[in-house]
Amino acid sequence: MAVAEKSVAKTAPRAAGPAKAPKPRARRTKVEQRADKMEQILDAAEYLFSVHGLYGVTLKDVAQRVGVHHTLLNYYFTDKKKLFDDVIARRAGITSAKRIEALDAYDAATGGKPTVEGALRAFLDTDLDLYSQGGEAWKNYGALGAQVSNTPYGAELMDFHFDPVVLKLIGLLKKALPDCAEADIFWGYHFVTGALMLTLARTGRINRLSGGLCDSDDFEAVKDRMAGFMAAGFLAICKTGAGPGR
Q1: Looking at 99-108, 134-143, 176-185, which range is the least confident one?
Q2: What are the CA-CA distances from residue 232 to residues 18, 51, 93, 219, 221 (Å)?
Q3: Disulfide check for 106: which of 122, 213, 220, 238 has CB 3.0–4.6 Å away?
Q4: Cα dihedral sign for 134, 42, 50, 102?
Q5: Considering only 15-24, 79-88, 136-145, 179-188, which range has the smallest mean pLDDT?
């Protein structure tokens, strides 16, 4: 018996010590909770506005999508227009800053001697990357921007948020096309932004027209083609002087 007991003692597993209690999660501060709720509200509003526009959405619609009582939205936003403005502003600063940085970097890299296509790539590709790589939320924002840019109520917002980066691009295009009439450069930009907004709208029309050869969600395909296509357009109208009487 003694030998058996000794053998058992050698092979018996060591008794486990008392289990350590998991560390309690740090409670989020009221500021963090408020920031999280704000993001949920802005995400919901961004999607609804991108589909139905400013006048097709109510605060109750947004509250229902978030899963809160509509009175909570009044706590964060004074009215629907304030919510709409904040939705536009949230990502506008990001895309504008990235494009200005890209345009400045390109200008410096070329020693102040940009090409039309190079300037357009810095402007367009940087933006298209955000929408293609930023997930569905950024695509919703792109669709909203496309809608807003074609409405009277969105014109002032577009002016406020995006004029600095657009004028930065215009400045580079003037360097690239020193002999081009200024009006033709602005018209060229007008055509560029029209194509960009149609792309961001993701209507699916190109899918149907092409019988599936093209996909309105394929931002990489757009990126491969748009700057070169638009650069040729700038060169054409600046060379021929397409204005009346020329």
Answers
A1: 134-143
A2: 75, 34, 30, 20, 18
A3: 122
A4: negative
A5: 15-24
Q: What's the mean pLDDT in 210-222?
A: 95
Q: Would you tell me the crossing angle of helices 182-201 and 135-148 to the nearest 10 degrees?
A: 130
Residue 149 amino acid letter: S
CB-count exposure of residue 24 (10 Å: 0-12, 13-18, 19+): exposed
> In the predicted model, is pLDDT for residue 237 greater than 70?
yes
pLDDT value for 21:
57
CA distance 94 to 205: 29
d(CA 185, CA 58) in angstroms, rounded, equals 40
Three-state helix/strand/coil letters over the chain: CHHHHHHHHHHCCCCCCCCCCCCCCCCCCHHHHHHHHHHHHHHHHHHHHHHHCHHHCCHHHHHHHHCCCHHHHHHHCCCHHHHHHHHHHHHHHHHHHHHHHHHHHHHHHCCCCCCHHHHHHHHHHHHHHHHHHCHHHHHHHHHHHHHHCCCHHHHHHHHHHHHHHHHHHHHHHHHHCCCCCHHHHHHHHHHHHHHHHHHHHCCCHHHHHCCCCCCCCCHHHHHHHHHHHHHHHHHHHHHHCCCCCC
pLDDT band at residue 5 using 50, 70 and 90 as cut-offs: very low
